[in-house]
Amino acid sequence: GDSVTQMEGPVTLSEEAFLTINCTYTATGYPSLFWYVQYPGEGLQLLLKATKADDKGSNKGFEATYRKETTSFHLEKGSVQVSDSAVYFCALQGGSEKLVFGKGTKLTVNP
Amino acid sequence: GAVVSQHPSRVICKSGTSVKIECRSLDFQATTMFWYRQFPKKSLMLMATSNEGSKATYEQGVEKDKFLINHASLTLSTLTVTSAHPEDSSFYICSANDPLGTSGGAHYEQYFGPGTRLTVT
């Protein structure tokens, strides 16, 4: 079945550091790919998405490119802020409406 | 933008009692809603898919008699945890999609509620 594997972390960075969170997937067909963010005590918010190969999703300085050849959708940000501290989830949506999530990566950004 | 609400945000109940959690789409019609359970430091586990006007579809391993789901209208789905036990304590999150695009978003996009923290004592 479909699955998502992402680096589990936790990841701790200093403010203005470069961030990469790796995400790879296994799916039949051509899934849509998503990154969601969850701030403490809250539900999930969509951060960015890509629906086909080579698409780049971007939002709030975060980027991820849908790489079909490597089945990856790594999340990057050039300069993180303390306010980016949260848990980040990579997810895919295949033929059905169901989302399949990775295990989440906790990011802590220190001043 | 599309907004999904959940009520209550937190609930504490005694073992053996039942608890109902509501999930509402506030500004769009949701023919399908999803219920997730999130364990500490774990990912979200899809429990069931709730379809308006029909029975919910449960994921393997989820007890349908324990987690009752009702999707009575296009804007409301409820999850009732029956005869709750401490092991049912968790963070429950619902989501809804907007296949008709009434919210202006993509048909496949899921909108998540803020979650309900259930503690069973």
What does this molecule look like?
The complex is a heterodimer of chains A (111) and B (121). By secondary structure, chain A is mostly beta strands. Chain A is built from no helices and twelve strands. In chain A, the strands form three sheets. In chain A, strands 2, 5, 6, 10, 11 and 12 form a six-stranded mixed β-sheet that branches. In chain A, strand 10 and strand 11 form a beta hairpin. The termini of chain A are far apart. The mean pLDDT of chain A is 93. In chain B, strand 7 and strand 8 form a beta hairpin. The N and C termini of chain B lie far apart (37 Å). Chains A and B meet through strand 6 of A and strand 5, strand 9 and strand 10 of B.
Compact summary:
The complex is a heterodimer of chains A (111) and B (121). Chain A has 111 residues and is an all-beta fold.
Poorly predicted sequence stretches spanning 5 or more consecutive residues of chain B: none
Helix content of chain B: under 10%
**Run of helices and strands of chain A:** EEEEEEEEEEEE
Structural class by secondary-structure content of chain B: mainly beta
Strand content of chain A: over 45%
